[in-house]
Amino acid sequence: MPIENVINDKEKIVYTICRGVMTLEDFTEHMKRIWSDTKYYGYHELLDTTLGDWTDFDFGFLFTIAEKASRLTSFDPNTKVAYVVQEGKQKALTDFYKNIKAMLPVNSRKLETFYSKEEAIAWLKS
């Protein structure tokens, strides 16, 4: 599976790792499996995109993901999502997604991008 999750119930963090070629279907499945599950309400998420291949991922996919995410009631708006990215398309995709989320009329989770897991984890725990 291109998107793997490790759940840390003690820290209340979902550690998500993207591997291989990323598609809209992968993120739709991730939304069903993790984001739509109310047992993870109140959990932060670290989404490591650095091992994924984003060449086929279209900016238009982000509109679909943001729209679907905005309809979810399983999110705690007081939680955070930390994206770990590499410079280039990963950073551009994440920045674009962040801007889309800001335009939607919903109270959403805080989202930030980082270049290291250590910085991302520190922010999630702050």
Model description:
- By secondary structure, this protein is α/β, with parallel strands linked by helices.
- The chain has a single domain (3-125), classed as Transcription Regulator spoIIAA.
- Helices cover 38% and strands 28% of the residues.
- The protein is built from four helices and five strands, in the order ββαβαβαβα.
- It has helices at residues 24-35, 59-70, 89-103, 117-125, and strands spanning 3-8, 13-21, 44-53, 80-84, 110-114.
- The chain has a five-stranded mixed β-sheet, sandwiched between helices.
- The longest helix has 15 residues, at 89-103.
- The chain starts with a strand and ends with a helix.
- The model has no long low-confidence stretch (mean pLDDT 89).
Give the CATH level 1 class: Alpha Beta
Gyration radius from CA atoms, angstroms: 13 Å
Identify the quaternary structure here: single chain
User: Which structural class do you get from the secondary structure elements?
Assistant: alpha/beta
Biggest β-sheet: strands ordered side by side in the sheet = 1-2-3-4-5
Task: Tell how many strands the DSSP assignment holds.
Answer: 5
Biggest sheet record:
5 strands, mixed
Number of domains: 1
CATH topology: Transcription Regulator spoIIAA
